[in-house]
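Quick one: structure tokens for this chain, please?
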Amino acid sequence: MNVVYWLLTELSTRILPILGIFVPKIRHFVAQRENLFSSLSDFRATHTGPLTWFHVASLGEYEQAKPVIAALKEQEPSTWVVVSFFSPSGYEPTARKPQAGVDWITYLPLDRKSWADRFVAVLNPTRSIFVKYDLWYHHLQALKQRQVPTYLIAASFRPDQSYFSWYGGFFRRMLEQMDWIFTQNESSIQLLASFKITNASQTGDTRFDRVAGTAAQPMDFPTIREWIKDRPTVVIGSAWEEDMTLLIPLIQSKPDYLWIIAPHALDALAMDRWASALGVPTKKFSQWKGEQDPQILFIDNIGMLSSLYQFAHFAYVGGGFGKGLHNILEPLGFGIPVIFGNPKRASKFPEAAQSQLEGCGFAVSSFSELQECVHQLEQPEFYQKSTTAAQQWVKANLGAADRILAHLTNSTSSK
């Protein structure tokens, strides 16, 4: 398998530039990595000394890394922090503005052996931390050869993953090479143990730390606050077309509510189409000065959503009917109930099932179920129980970042 993987990575790095001639997304993917090594060399030349490297696939994993980065910087302020992304959808919005505690943001080169060796050699990290699942064989081999302590945090495993399949020996070896694995749940520990991987501990989901931090210090939007006043408001986060099919008739049936809609993709045509179907006063945030009084405000930018839940009586989070449910913990961090489409692959989103057991999350599969759920949340006693459940669940799951950091720093000091 090692030889097959080596051959595939060698071929892919040669084929992708050719495919990029015909496919703009691939062309962009390749072009963004062209000056990667020279930029990294320039950074390291002026930032010598201890460095911790975090690798994430995209934005969701970066959110899980943020609490650990913050705790690390507080404890080791002289340590440089570099974050690498695989996906443009994660790198591009993150690289546009300074990130707290992060000294350099870069793409990860494709997992060609020579590139992985060069990347690790130039970066020269003191420790490396991978988040959740985005593991690359040659990069891990390069770290091992240089004896760099390597960790996996926020891991959440399922039996149907490639690591645990009949052909999974190659992938499982990447887990075995980790100095330590920090999991979100006990079931992941048990699954690892069944394959004799015992260098692991359950520390919880760092997203709870992240959402609690956001709720404690949300961004301030005085224009939106003035618009809402004391009127009941629903925030719809990361809406897809499938979500809006259910939500449009609900919105039309609730003229007393205000609605803040943040689409999954910043597609102006989709927002215009939804506005036309709704038939009520709407406004895009970028075009709104606060003079008008729309019933619906479309958020046509990236970066506001996580703080907008502060205005919500309850929230709806999209994606469950499509490729994957988005972050339901963000509204729960503000202590409000959240509704979402019943995920097609529920095992990939254990927080969805757990939120239902806790009494603060509600999965729906049809408009009638959505309507009934909203009706329940309009009952004061039921709503109060749901908000209390949200607050208690988040509070009970805080501290994952501190537990991870305690292990990391103890491991470093003992070497």
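The domain at 219-396 is CATH 3.40.50.2000 (Rossmann fold).
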